[in-house]
Amino acid sequence: MAQAFSQRPHPKRVLFITDFYQEEVLLGVVEHAREAGWELISNMRFHGMFPSESEADGLLVTAVGPRVRQWMRKWSNTAVVQIGGPVSDWPYPSVDVDYEAAARQAARHLLELGHVHHAFYSLINGDEVRLMRAAFQSELAQVDLSAHHLDFQALHGARVLEVPREERLRWLAQELGTLKKPLAVMGDDDRRALELMAACEMAGLRVPEDVAIVGCENRNIEALMAPVPLSSVDTNWRRAGREAAVLLDRLMHGEKVDPPRLLVPPRGVMARASTATFVTDSKGITRALLHIRENFPQPIRLTGLARTAGMGERQFRDEFKRLVGRGPRAEIHRARLACAARLLRDTDLKLDAIAVESGLGTARKLCEVFAETHEMTPTAWRHQARQS
After folding, report:
1. Ramachandran region of residue 37, left (φ > 0), alpha (ψ -120 to 50) or beta?
2. Which of 84, 193, 226, 267 is deepest in the core (most CB within 10 A)?
3. Between the CA of residue 343 and those of 14, 381, 386, what are the distances in Å?
4. Architecture of domain 2-97+238-267
């Protein structure tokens, strides 16, 4: 037995080093570490202390401040992959999420809700935030719209982090009060989105009726803290963690890595109550559309929707298609399909349960819809979505 034990291959030892911990990143790393049989040391996330190990086959590193960068100097001969934006003077490959694509998705989501007046809120205008704002503006510019920049750093410069949060919220409430309503705002991350909500409360503005808010990164803690369930772009940090682990595995086995920086696309906007509105010139059509979005799992009759809109059935169909861009039946189908896709991706519910929850009725109908829309079964779509 002792001889058999000694012949087992030694597992790769990997240290997880971070000064900006995100749980989703580590979960993605763990997915690959289990498959690869690594010895993963991730204790730094508990207490911020560097690991005591003096030897390792590879390092996965998130470095924001100088402390981690200085510690890394003694690991010059070890395989390293950085997670997050690359440090300019580091030779290591990096894996990051695509913030530009995230901002574009947020802009498209707000445009689909019919919004004309937009803003972008940021606290510190680093490289990533500048790219996000430019992408957000670029997406709006395609339909001849623009976004007001709620730029707190422009007022305070390098002292921006020294200003008390309450002062920042008062400024933000005043600024929001001066902008045209209904307004749609993107925060550069979910923490800024929570500040937008707090400022709206100060200013007596309703979310989402007066101000629709979308954040970025879809963080669980911020989502739970939000007084109104927060819509947010899921930047897919979990996949970034998994891709970084795969990349490190290749380096530890002597492969060359190309390209030196990998960008992971976002999963999309996780739409919740903070953007659960629609802006049209017709209050009746808006009421009908919101009724669909709140009640799509139930049977919905066209006559009832027309009554909700205060219109005759024919006028309702014509006005709905003109203002929304698709007919009411197509909107009901779209809402049910989106719900089914979300449940397939984010839960382990069986197909029968998903069909009922989404309003599609039966597993057979669910399969028919996915075959027609995605040219694959719901089970195949679920597997593909979870790998992306």
Report:
1. left
2. 193
3. 34, 11, 12
4. 3-Layer(aba) Sandwich (3.40)
Say which residue the tokens 């909107």 belong to. 331
Contact indicator for 260, 218 with CB cutoff of 8 Å: no
Q: What architecture does CATH give domain 99-234?
A: 3-Layer(aba) Sandwich (3.40)
User: Which CATH class, in words, describes the domain spanning 283-387?
Assistant: mainly alpha
pLDDT tens by residue, 27-50: 999 999 999 999 999 999 999 999
Sequence-distant (6+) residues with CB within 8 A of 1 are: none
List Cβ neighbours of 269 (8 Å cut-off, separation of 6 or more).
105, 106, 109, 214, 231, 232, 233, 234, 275
Q: What is the pLDDT of residue 8?
A: 56
Rg of the chain over all Cα atoms, to the nearest angstrom: 24
- Please give the model's pTM, rounded to 2 decimal places: 0.84
pLDDT per residue over 136-178, tens digit each?
A: 999 999 999 999 999 999 999 989 999 999 999 999 999 999 9
> 192-210, pLDDT tens digit by residue?
999 999 999 999 999 999 9
CB 40 within 8 A of CB 14: yes
Q: Which amino acid is at 197?
A: M
> Residue 78 to residues 61, 72, 289: CA-CA distances in angstroms?
12, 10, 57
Decide: 28 and 242 in contact? Cβ < 8 Å.
Answer: yes
Q: How far is Cα 132 from Cα 104, in angstroms, rounded to an integer?
A: 8
Phi, psi of 148 (to 5 degrees): -75, 135
Q: Scanning the structure block, which residue is given the tokens 């999309």?
A: 268
The residue extents of the domains of the chain are: 2-97+238-267, 99-234, 283-387
Provide the token pair at 185.
Answer: 């705002």
